[in-house]
Amino acid sequence: MPEGEYGTGMRLKLMRILLAVLLLAPAPRDMREVRLSLPKRPADAPTGSAFRDRIATRPLAERETAVIGEITRGNVPEFLRRLKPIAVECTDETGARHAGTCFVTADYLGVGSDEDFFRIPLTPQAAVAIADAAGGTLLTAKLSDDVFRAADLNLEPKPLTQDRESVATFFQHHQIIEDQLRGKPRGALVAGIKKDIVWTNRLQEKPRKVAIYGWHYPDGRPIQPLYVGHWDRYVDYSHGLRLLAREMVVDGRTVAVTDVLRDGRLRGLVTCEGPTDIDQLRRTSEWDR
After folding, report:
1. Does 177 reside within a domain?
2. What is the domain range of residue 192?
3. Beta strand pairing status for 97-104 and 247-250?
4. Which residue among 26, 46, 62, 181 has its CA within the 20 to 30 Å range from the CA of 12?
């Protein structure tokens, strides 16, 4: 074969090899679908309204045991399993800019199917147990704001004042949200409907408390400033669990959120506080007890 033909043949061969490598290489994390790590929904799983009837009169401890059991066995709507990307950015102390992508649930976690589910407020103990099982963690106040800004749908908050801690009121508020969402696409990123259970360094000074933040008005103002005044067994209709994936993309790399929170250069992507150690917060908050 003449040298020119040989050279052309080799170039074509190398191009084919390179193309095959590119096609087989894993896509960056922010280009793949990120999902909760939960089992497939069981065929015999109750719908949200049926589950509401089961737990309506149960005391808190029994109710939350039932909720944890249903969610960890996979009784979660499909649209809540597919996490939504949220763009975040910060400038570190040297003036260098960093860009990242976090992944959050489209709505607040609930029990049931896409057609019939129930957003259920939870104590922080139940929230972290579910987050652990699903491969996620809690938001921070900064990320709650970021979710609001990125949301496809920002709904008007609808506060309630009576029987705030009852299952009946939990379901009433869930139905109000469903009425607001009627005709909207299921799986869109929704904000303005609940307060977030969050991580904050203030829990180091407030053991056995729950940290809540958010429930934004359409103009971006949160109804609830960061608050750590309630006992950690307190939960009312306004609380919600929006999960954050444990890993995020930072400057093109996949990084653990826990590492970003501890990193002096990168923590501004996910928090407005100083370095945050979630393992330490779990110990000092005593939520795991």
Report:
1. yes
2. 29-285
3. antiparallel
4. 26
